[in-house]
């Protein structure tokens, strides 16, 4: 007899589709795209060799789907019980969180304050969004907050306006070759800034590049370069250049991504973080 092992994520997807009565809401709850949830259900149907979901205006489980759903609830409950039982409840949960390049400091501070209530220890890594996304895929991070030109399968939270910034008396934007301080290659901020200048036919050179804000801000504050920052987190000693001085920048998408191996407790923290970030964007 051939043994077939069913991935817990497939069972969790089926239960979530049933609970939310749709792929869209299930995707939001599990921090996946709708197409990813659909593929998980199809894979589960292939493994069981049965149609499990009736697709249409209203999502319903077939008789076979109801049977798998019944077992899925029991299996997931046992799985979560096992994880809880082997973990020492006196040892705080360790959560690895990635923060994007040039993140909005005030927004991140609100998020960090809000997760203090969880019994967890946090380690943070600030890097480019592309690197953070890859680290989540490799399970080197549990949760990542990302800046994207467009969401790429992550949970979209909202849009972040970006601005060109310089010292208050800077005239670098008038130069034929604009000196820039930008995040490292692969950054959505860097791509947006370069494209905006190229589309306007402006020449530029990148004087300073880094994932971290400190060296970039130092180059800007010294009057050596112009930079790009989230509009809501521009320091008072810098000024925002208006659209008449440099081309307008597009808004970027703030997203969250969670490791597929994350525990239910980590998913709960990620959902809480997402809610706080969303509230911060609308405040």
Automatic annotation (TrEMBL):
HTH lysR-type domain residues: 6-62
GO molecular function, one term: DNA-binding transcription factor activity
Taxonomic placement: Bacteria, Pseudomonadati, Pseudomonadota, Gammaproteobacteria, Pseudomonadales
Protein's UniProt keywords contain Transcription regulation: yes
Cited Gene3D superfamilies: Periplasmic binding protein-like II, Winged helix-like DNA-binding domain superfamily/Winged helix DNA-binding domain
Keywords: DNA-binding, Transcription, Transcription regulation
Database matches in PROSITE patterns: HTH_LYSR
Homology family: Belongs to the LysR transcriptional regulatory family.
Protein name per its UniProtKB record: LysR family transcriptional regulator
Superkingdom of the organism of origin: Bacteria
Pfam assignment, any one: HTH_1
